[in-house]
Design goal:
The structure is a homodimer of 338-residue chains. With 338 residues, chain A is of the alpha/beta class. Chain A folds into two domains: 7-121, NAD(P)-binding Rossmann-like Domain (Rossmann fold), CATH 3.40.50.720; 140-335, Rossmann fold (3-Layer(aba) Sandwich). Chain A has twelve helices and eleven strands.
Chain lengths: 338, 338
């Protein structure tokens, strides 16, 4: 599965920016892949890209229309269907982050068949995976892990990939969630895989690569989250990381959606090493990424200095505020310059 | 989902007993649920039950025909289909441990619809689960865990359930694998659940129950198996056991199907407690179940005495050879008499 760019981002007529966060995420990280946006009358979201019709998009070489917005309930509104059919009729593929499968809607299925185009439902997956093997693959891997869900693991992995590339490392981002798949054009929403194949899918997501190539793998869940820890452990085993970055949100008191208290950063480091050694005995923590949005700038610097001091002087940074340079420095220290 | 008994066990025309091991497992543990067996000409397997036609079975009150055999490749041979259609036409439900879904075969689908009968594919699941909540439920729970896959976790859980009941405890077996589901008439093949819902499915499998009722939960995989540990961790979190039994096979050197060395029993105890405390802070190991089939009787006794001494005098037994009494004694010591 490879979603071809350039993309046309379809926003429908959603009532606010939050409903278009998938599209906005794609623009944030892959603006050069995005030719324009298509908005229906009444749309209140805006990615800042040029508005563009489907035929204009086709003329500019767009390959895929990305349905990068969700309406209430996750359904596909009837009045979005004709835009999707038009895109297929103009020769574009269509990728969607909706819960509903595009192919389950007869008009869309027929248009795809009629035009020989592909439909990508990034919340689902159609790949067949092997079970995980646990054998060492060539290449180097970094995994984002977290004290909780939704603490910035995707952002951290994307920022790390960007910073590594800018420093001259060969690196690529490996997606394990739906928005990540649209950002990378490849990957799997790991939470939608059949349980027996979690680590096998993680191995597929981060396959054997050149020895000096770094795969920066988007994390999922937390080993300490009672709903999703199984996904996290399978991802850890399958991705066999050489290094991992712990992501943390300091104002969170209980795990997302449940009453379980947050673990400490040290607990996450210890359990990740303990479990990760099964498939990579050399696994180590290379840094801590904290969302300090709730703190003032001086306060944030003090907090990060304290976190670093408390964890053996591991680099601690806020990827949004202070960038990933400190963690790339750590990679250079441990594994050498590019 | 509840599979109604009595059962008629359908063995087809399989060439050996191994191909009928699902049926044999059901007879081993639920002989009183099994009215008879149906074998086609050439069948080389035998559960020891009376041979019985479908119409005889119907006359004896059989509710479900269980397809308890697999042919090479896991497919459903064309010449088995007419027996299944006959069973549905006689008013029986049909349950199957085959990979292929019964409902995917038009003749079977139509016969089920025509007769208003249910089809159960115990390797798959059609339940919709919530994500795991991690909140404490009433009742008591024991989970079988293992140093590897296929080390006797299902046998241990069934033997423990039987021994607890015989000692006067209120107890029930909770199935997490396909044969277990046929043995208990309820449950889920956990490895077939979507990854996001592993712990939620485990919560569904072992729901809130009376405070003095014990659920004895079939284990899956191993926290140290690089293919399946995610399933194991989700099951551990979702089943929130008060006690767990470590199952072990002493001749195994590498984990089943992979090159990873086996963990020690102590490693399994430590990691199970460490992870299990997330949803039950009082989790503890209550015993060790060893498959000593490769050892002579004296040798087996010596080995078990050594294992017990090495693990703080936890009871160590071979469930097949020496029964589960020692571990039930431990339950009585810790949690009190029934």
């Amino acid at each position: 599965m490879k979603i071809e760019h350039p993309y046309l981002l379809f926003l429908g007529d959603v009532p606010d920016a939050l409903a278009a966060k998938t599209a906005i995420g794609v623009v944030d990280w892959r603006k050069d892949w995005c030719a324009g946006q298509l908005r229906l009358p009444g749309c209140a979201a805006d990615t800042g890209l040029a508005d563009m019709s489907i035929s204009e998009a086709r003329d500019k070489g767009v390959r895929t229309m990305v349905v990068g917005a969700v309406n209430a309930g996750g359904r596909l509104p009837d009045h979005w269907i004709s835009s999707i059919v038009d895109a297929l009729d103009e020769g574009l593929d269509v990728a969607s982050g909706l819960h509903v499968r595009l192919g389950s809607i007869p008009a869309i299925r027929e248009a795809a068949d009629r035009n020989g185009r592909q439909l990508f439902d990034v919340r689902h997956n159609s790949e067949t995976f092997a079970t995980g093997k646990g054998t060492k693959r060539t290449g180097k891997r970094i995994l984002a892990v977290g004290t909780d869900c939704s603490v910035g693991k995707k952002y951290t992995a994307l920022a790390m990939d960007k910073a590594m590339n800018e420093r001259g490392y060969q690196s690529s981002f490996c997606a394990t969630g739906q928005t990540g798949v649209l950002i990378s054009g490849r990957g799997v929403a790991l939470d939608a895989v059949i349980a027996d194949f979690i680590s096998g899918a993680a191995e597929w997501i981060s396959p054997e690569t050149a020895e000096d190539h770094w795969q920066i793998i988007e994390g999922q869940g937390s080993l300490f989250h009672p709903s999703f820890a199984g996904v996290t452990l399978g991802l850890l085993h399958g991705s066999q990381p050489d290094g991992f970055i712990v992501c943390h949100e300091p104002t969170r008191r209980t795990m997302r959606g449940v009453q379980t208290p947050l673990p400490t950063i040290q607990q996450v480091i210890d359990l990740t090493i303990q479990c990760g050694q099964l498939t990579n005995p050399a696994i180590q923590c290379i840094g801590i990424a904290v969302n300090t949005a709730a703190l003032g700038e001086d306060e944030a610097r003090d907090y990060l200095a304290k976190v670093s001091a408390e964890h053996g002087d591991l680099p601690a940074t806020d990827p949004v505020r202070f960038g990933m340079e400190a963690i790339v420095d750590k990679v250079a220290d441990i594994f050498g310059a590019p």
